[in-house]
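Lab notebook, bench 4. The sequencing result for the construct came back, and we need a structural model before the next group meeting so we can plan mutations. Quick request posted to the team channel:

Model the 3D structure of this chain.
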Amino acid sequence: MSESILIVEDELSLQETLAYNLKKDGYGVEIVGDGLSALEAARRIKPDLIILDIMLPKMDGFEVARILRKEMTTAILMLTARDDEIDRVVGLEVGADDYLTKPFSMRELLARVKAQLRRTRMLREEMKSTRDISAPPHETLTFGNLVINLTRREVILDGQPLQLKPKEYELLLFLAEHKSQMLSREFILERVWGWDFIGDSRTVDVHVRWLRQKIEMDAAKPNRIVTVRGGGYRFEG
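Done. Here's the predicted structure in token form:
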């Protein structure tokens, strides 16, 4: 069964170009031209990837990404018409997995699509292999009131499970496995996102900020994930 991609783009010529090239690569494609239709289509078909423009009628791409990220873990590749760092950072903060600035080459877009879908497949395989293990012992990492259950891919804080995105969990686990070690942003990016990830180290900063909001007593004064000035991050447990 081919992987499905939802294209959310209001420019007709770009719609047709994207659809033609993605179908030629064997993907199932659905196209919508506004933000409200994007929400309906994503909920209905549950695509493997969403290519989402920022500037859309009825509801912009930032709001679409923010809403969908609360409902599903589908990978989101955001398109922006401006080479503006603010757009890229906001896109990552609301839940996009990657971004691409217009105009772009079709070769680069297809490479990013393949990279996102490859990570999605790997995550599903990891989750399936975890479910297939019959009654394994619960392997955990415990740091006071914070418990990481590796068997269940679950994080517990004060006895309550946290709602973490897949990449937030993977980042927290990687930091916890290297407790007290200073890890550079570039090293974290390579090990957690993969050597073929095309984004930059700001992705790490955004995900660290999300994690701090969920596991720190005071996200503005973190004592679990500490920033090492000029270096990166250190997990103190």
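The chain is about 45% helix and 20% strand.
Will bring this to the meeting.
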